[in-house]
Fold:
Amino acid sequence: MKRILYSLASIACAAMAFTSCSNDDAMEGNVPEPVMQVTIEAGTPEVEAETRTELSGTIPMWSVGDKIAVMTQDNSFKTLTSSATAASKTTTFTGTVPMGTTTLYPFYPSKNEGKNAENNVKMDIPALQYPTETSFDGAADMLIGKPIAVTDGVDVATLKTQFARVIGVLKVNVKGAINGEKLESLSVSVDKSEAAGFAGRVSLDVRNSMGLTSLYYNKSLKVSAEYASENQFALNGTNGAYLCVYPQTLAAGTILTISGTTAGHNFKKVITLKNPIEILPGKLTNLNVTLNAEHISIRTSGAVLPFVDDFSWLHTGKVSIDSSKGKYTNGTNLYCDNLKELRIGVSKHGGSIETKFLNLSKPYTIKVTAKAYGSDNSNLIITVGNVTKTETLTATAQEFVIPMPAATENEKIKFATEDAGDRRLYIQRIEVLDGQGGDVVVPSIINVTTTSPIAMGWIGGMGEINYTIENPKQGVTIAATTTDNWITNINTSVEGTISFEVVANETGKVRTGDIKLSYGEAEPKTVEVKQDLKKDPVLIVADQTIKSDAGTYTFSYQVENPDGSTMQAASTDAWISAVNASVAGEISFTVTANDTGVVRTGTITLTYGAITKTVKITQEPAGVAAETTVTITAQQLGDGGLNQEVKTEKTVTIGDLTFRFKNEGGTANSMPVYNNKGHHIRIYTGDLLTISSVDGTKTIKKVVFNRVEKSGMFEDVDVPSALASLEWIVSKNVLNLKATAQLRFDKITVTYE
Structure:
């Protein structure tokens, strides 16, 4: 490929979409213009990875139907169309240009708004764009190519060029309190009047392959994105809204306002830049936005049906309704007695709940599941505007299907009971649907709650898929099938759980398979199963130091990549007996008292399949204050050493010592994490690690931290002093250590006496 000869440093600015028209291929007076056909090959870009009209992961691609424009030496414009039938890194553009054309100046998109006196192309970066989940708005993108020399009868293969992006791209990644909701719109605005602005009219010098001149018309300090329903994507901090903007440096102190909408919420966050941000031509700049409750509000108008609430957000136990949830008017004495049952009315107090504003301008149906409280003689009263419906309740929950006439676009539905004694009731579920009566068809939905893909070890075994059915149908059951013969014994007999078995993977490579779930007319769901390739087992165990006393002692071990072998343990030392490996992950043994007056050592040999390891047992002599060493690892903290575990507080006892990890940081983000991936213990800012003697008689002498990563320090809460090294010499019965910033260790070894 030929390289682009101009420097991107000369591209002084960036812009977003073209909106214009192309010249006709016929000359004035309908006299056919002598033309010749040309084909231009546009290859993989030689600048940034994000330099095409769509992205496949991080790979830039040309899209089907893409068109480029070319300016000829006589300043006319022609459009060439891509031949691609699928997204491609390299494509060809074909069209006709006037006979005798010697030079083509290519650019993208194909539409333009004419040329100025210097023969530059005028273009608009639109303030309103329509990107997708994975790419930019094609009309808001700008690429410029290297000029191409053309001669009559030229070989097609010689007409090659490379394109470079000349606008900047902001990728706004939103995460926080509305994760999982789909983005409908998003905007970013800048407060600085001296800033170049984000959108407006620019000029591009295609003849000299130069970048954008400064914004000079229709300037806008705000750029927005709107999403068609098929292009909406769920917010999760990874997906992002792509916005094409004018390249510039946003100075420190610049205020950015990020706002947007989902189906149920509005959000807005104002950010003051502590450091400057460079939005460079041809490059993608990530803007990460974390939302908290104060940034989010309920959308109170134009809500679409169906509206559903089963109160699953409520806690178990008697908990008053939290009016800050935004969906309910907090009446008198509303309680949740158990999950998914909302109690209205206590003694003589009525209480009520209301939906958010709904569009009820067409006939609709209310479906509500409710029952009386105990023996109360209760009625459920439903009010919409001046329309009231009353349903008599019994002690058994019933679903009421109530056709309703059209109301207004912005109306609430109120659910209440009489303001009289013994009128308490439970509401379990509320649903509001388009249509009336028997015409209402509520589709079932399969919700898979197990993360896909399901990871299975090479040796195989049992796995399970957890699911729920929304709007279940009587007589319909879940079905699960697979075409992968290594996934067997699929069982759907337990409601909410599908179990399956995976055979050992002897293929020598990782393999994936699918289990397809179906339920009547519901949309099927597919769950991926990923099985690791065969790996040799690894036995992890440490040498042990014990006291002089006779008795039974234990130590732990771990087997990575187990192959199903049985652990065996034995010793040839006369003073070590009753070696037992019957408890998974633990070896017990009995010793006689050490009356020799000196330290003695012995061994216990562990055998797991073809693996043999010798564990050194050191016993202190009687009459000497014996020092004992214990080690705690991430595997001893997690769920059997297999999965990540996050805890507000967790206590583990090893030997004579207790290790307590406690979240003192005040937020979920600072909870201790015990993670087998990478084998480390992760402690966050403010977390407290307490090491103490079980019976209060042991003295901690030394603490050694085997570090994976360290960005912070430990401080002794009682006697503040920073942990300046990985080995800390102390003499305390209780040691309280607080992290000043995040710390990661693969193990902690403590010596005590």
